[in-house]
């Protein structure tokens, strides 16, 4: 038998913003598929119409487009296994519900919510299973004629999976190894509801994965308790030979490690938990996103990849291509991964350094424009090259290098007190005369002339350079002094010295 083609899926529900944990699940699916030359399917699980949120589907697609995670088929991508929205697959599911009923693998139950509540009150820890189904109103206890009459009369019902008790169900997990659960602890799960003629997640998920030829199901740890039920469903349909391999990923935990990461943690500590900014149409609440917070998509991908997986070496910064090459499900952790959001900031800093000065300058130009600055691209590229190692976000460049574009109108009091001496005005007037006479205004050209002048005069180098910095920058920050004056040019450098002397003398 030829080796099966790798086919994975990411199947979110359109119920709101995409949580960063969902992004990581999709990323691991993507890395696995690409490494094995396989396909990645985008499926929408929208069987719960009550929880549908407008624009959620578009938001999810836009998030992955920004992150550089590409799908091969599915909603909005097309393909031969559609439709890819579960709400459009009703007739397909009905066919498989009938198959289970005909083969005595499922049964019809008419119990009302009130009847179920009464039974729960009567029996402690009540579970609808092999030990209790015989005392309920279902097709196993009612005559066929009565069942047919109730359905004909439009009586609402559900279809429940008939789980045989006391059987060890083996789930072979690629991360956790063999997981064995006894079927007696499982309830007869509802697979289909006549009220909306739609299946529940469990049935739709199994049928879709089988028909879409999914080879590997890579999903969050929260689905591990459902895995035995899914194995039993594959067996009930006679699909055990083509059942996908399972891999249940570790949870993303709060930064402190105590419990699952939530939006509240992000609000509390000031980091996003969504890839893009989300405007909730129900509450009008706006939640921050990684894109709008200034993160580079490559940094987010690299950061998420290492939350619950490691490449087996000390390498941390990895491109998407490197992640694809190195990814191995067997190197995923079994235990939850603390969401170290500060590490995400560190990754963003690394990727700013890796990107070309031209690319970062392109991202910085709109920020300059917001501050009313129109500067030549060549100048912005030069400044970015000098200053990008000092920031973790492109927007922070303004705080560290605005003086390149706007002359100081006031001077930092603490710096003036510490750096502007009694003779600084006189020294700066002399320096201006020296600078005016420099013909080669390159960094090296300036430095030689100015340092020779300082030596000749016997001045204190620190006093001269500190006053010079205060005059050009307005405070005691910035790169090498002659880098600053070179970018500003001779005319602007002289104008700033003159103004500082007038204001501070």
UniProtKB/TrEMBL annotation:
Its EC number is 6.1.1.17. Keywords: Aminoacyl-tRNA synthetase, ATP-binding, Cytoplasm, Ligase, Nucleotide-binding, Protein biosynthesis. ATP binds at residue 263. A motif ('HIGH' region) lies at residues 12-22. One of its GO terms (cellular component) is cytosol. Residues 378-500 form the Aminoacyl-tRNA synthetase class I anticodon-binding domain. Catalyzes the attachment of glutamate to tRNA(Glu) in a two-step reaction: glutamate is first activated by ATP to form Glu-AMP and then transferred to the acceptor end of tRNA(Glu). This is Glutamate--tRNA ligase. It comes from Jilunia laotingensis. The lineage of its organism: Bacteria, Pseudomonadati, Bacteroidota, Bacteroidia, Bacteroidales. The gene is gltX.
């Amino acid at each position: 038998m030829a080796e099966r083609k790798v086919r994975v899926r990411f199947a979110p529900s359109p119920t709101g913003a995409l949580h960063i944990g969902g992004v990581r699940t999709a990323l691991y699916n993507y890395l696995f598929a690409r490494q094995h030359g396989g396909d990645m399917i985008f499926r929408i699980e929208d069987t719960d119409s009550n929880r549908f949120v407008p624009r959620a589907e578009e938001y999810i697609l836009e998030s992955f487009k920004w992150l550089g995670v590409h799908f091969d088929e599915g909603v909005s991508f097309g393909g031969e296994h559609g439709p890819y929205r579960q709400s459009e697959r009703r007739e397909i599911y009905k066919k498989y519900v009938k198959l289970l009923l005909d083969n005595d693998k499922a049964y019809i139950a008419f119990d009302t919510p009130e009847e179920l509540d009464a039974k729960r009150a009567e029996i402690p820890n009540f579970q609808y299973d092999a030990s209790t189904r015989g005392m309920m109103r279902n097709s196993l206890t009612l005559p066929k004629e009565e069942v047919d009459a109730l359905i004909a009369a439009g009586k609402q019902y559900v279809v429940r999976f008939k789980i045989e008790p006391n059987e060890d169900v083996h789930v072979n997990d690629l991360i956790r190894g063999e997981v064995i659960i006894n079927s007696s602890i499982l309830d007869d799960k509802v697979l289909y509801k006549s009220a909306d003629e739609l299946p529940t997640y469990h049935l739709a998920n199994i049928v879709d994965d089988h028909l879409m030829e999914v080879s590997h199901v890579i999903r969050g740890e929260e689905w591990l308790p459902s895995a035995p039920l899914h194995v039993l469903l594959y067996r009930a349909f006679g699909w055990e030979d083509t059942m996908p391999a399972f891999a249940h990923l570790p949870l993303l935990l709060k930064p402190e490690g105590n419990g699952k990461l939530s939006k509240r943690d992000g609000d509390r500590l000031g980091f996003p938990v969504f890839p893009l900014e989300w405007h909730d149409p129900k509450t009008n609440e706006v939640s921050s996103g990684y894109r709008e917070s200034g993160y580079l998509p490559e940094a987010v991908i690299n950061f998420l990849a290492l939350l619950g997986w490691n490449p087996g070496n000390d390498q941390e910064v990895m491109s998407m291509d490197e992640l694809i090459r190195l990814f191995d499900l067997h190197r995923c952790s079994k235990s939850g991964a603390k969401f170290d959001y500060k590490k995400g900031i560190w990754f963003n800093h690394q990727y700013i350094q890796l990107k070309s000065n031209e690319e970062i300058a392109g991202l910085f130009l709109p920020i300059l424009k917001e501050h009313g600055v129109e500067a030549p691209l060549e100048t912005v590229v030069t400044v970015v090259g000098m200053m990008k190692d000092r920031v973790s976000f492109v927007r922070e460049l303004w705080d560290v290098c605005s003086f390149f574009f706007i002359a100081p109108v006031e001077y930092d009091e603490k710096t003036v007190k510490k750096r502007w001496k009694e003779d600084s005005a006189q020294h700066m007037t002399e320096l201006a005369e020296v600078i005016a006479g420099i013909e080669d205004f390159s960094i090296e050209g300036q430095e030689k002339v100015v340092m020779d002048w300082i030596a000749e005069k016997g001045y204190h180098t620190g006093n001269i350079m500190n006053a010079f910095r205060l005059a050009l920058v307005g405070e005691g920050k910035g790169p090498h002094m002659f880098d600053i004056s070179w970018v500003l040019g001779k005319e602007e450098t002289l104008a700033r010295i003159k103004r500082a002397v007038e204001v501070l003398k």
